[in-house]
Amino acid sequence: MKEVYRAELIGNEDMVTTIVAALKDALQEASVASHVSQQMQLACEEALTNIFLHGYGGEGWIRVMCGMHDGAITLILSDKARAFDPTLVLDPDIDEKLEDRPIGGLGIHLIREMMDDFTYQRSDDANTITMIKRV
Fold first, then answer.
1. Strand 72-79 to 117-123 pairing
2. In DSSP terms, which residues pair with 20 in a beta bridge?
3. How far apart are CA 35 and CA 109, in angstroms?
4. Which pLDDT does position 107 carry in this prediction?
5. What DSSP string runs through 74-96?
6. pLDDT, mean of each 10-residue run, the chain (135 residues)
7. Would you say 135 and 115 are in contact if contact means Cβ atoms under 8 Å apart?
């Protein structure tokens, strides 16, 4: 896999915009189509926000890696927050009235809708989310 972007840092929710902007620049430099780049950015933003807000409840370690291989873009996010498998979260009822819906859950739903593959793994006290978009 040809690496396009990598960052490893201690951050918080305030860093999400900076990380996503750097990912955008890297995808643009790699000549990724604008609509695909936008989907990768949104998926990254949603996942990172969940990690910092719900996993850490603030600040924590994160690794973001993005690469291209065989007509696909792979985005891998790793963290050391509490174990949480987002692939097990049920889809929200998007047909329910907005005022009757519980808050949350749309970010993971969006990731599922935009990505071709969305997986989770827990090993060595780390969560790893892998998102793949075929282009």
1. unpaired
2. none
3. 18
4. 77
5. EEEEEE-SS---GGGSPPP-TTS
6. 96 96 98 97 96 95 97 97 87 59 69 95 96 96
7. no
* Long-range interactions of 28-35: CB distance < 8 A, separation 24+: 29/4, 30/4, 30/68, 32/4, 32/68, 32/73, 32/135, 33/135
> What's the whole-model pTM score?
0.89
pLDDT of residue 92: 55
pLDDT of residue 112: 92
Yes or no: say if 67 and 4 are a contact pair by the CB < 8 Å rule.
yes
Tokens 């955008």 sit at which residue?
Answer: 24
Domains, in order of start, for the chain: 2-134 (3.30.565.10)
Say how far residue 99 (Cα) sits from the centre of its chain.
Answer: 27
The residue with tokens 């969006």 is 110
Asked whether 58 and 12 are in contact (CB, 8 A), the reply is yes
